[in-house]
Specification:
The protein has about 130 residues and is mainly β. It is about 5% helix and about 50% strand. The longest helix is centred in the first third of the chain and has 4 residues. About 15% of the residues are buried.
Length: about 130
């Protein structure tokens, strides 16, 4: 019996932005996004199917990066933020606690790549994938 395409093929849709050196021996992945749902939008940095619930910010914390800096902003009442930054191997590379409304983490010591920022505030966790260039 011949297998039907849907039995052996589960397509994943996405994009990747990368750089390759002249000799082809080094590849740097800057960012990527994927979605396993057909005909659905792919949000920047999306690495899995997201539901509407995932896109809502429950504790008003914004996390983003630019160059070698990671920014964390809270729109609430200056709650203490516990911030952890992890590399792709799951290793914690930075940990800090701050009650500031805006936190700017200098990432000069981090190699270029993708990092995960986890912020805990008022018993709730917010996580975001960021790119350090």
């Amino acid at each position: 019996m011949r297998a039907q395409p849907d039995e052996w093929w589960n397509p994943i849709y996405g994009w990747i932005r990368l750089s390759v050196n002249h000799s082809g021996t080094k590849v740097i992945i800057h960012d990527w996004a994927v979605n396993s749902e057909i005909n659905q939008p792919i949000n920047a940095g999306q690495t899995m199917k997201l539901s509407d619930e995932d896109l809502q910010s429950s504790n008003d914390i914004q996390i983003y990066s630019y160059g070698k800096q990671i920014f964390i902003n809270q729109n609430s009442q200056n709650l203490p933020l516990e911030i952890s930054i992890y590399n792709l191997l799951g290793e914690e590379v930075k940990h800090l606690v701050s009650s500031d409304e805006s936190v700017n983490v200098q990432a000069d010591q981090f190699p270029s790549g993708i990092y995960f920022v986890k912020v805990r505030a008022n018993g709730e966790n917010t996580s975001k994938e960021v790119v350090v260039e």
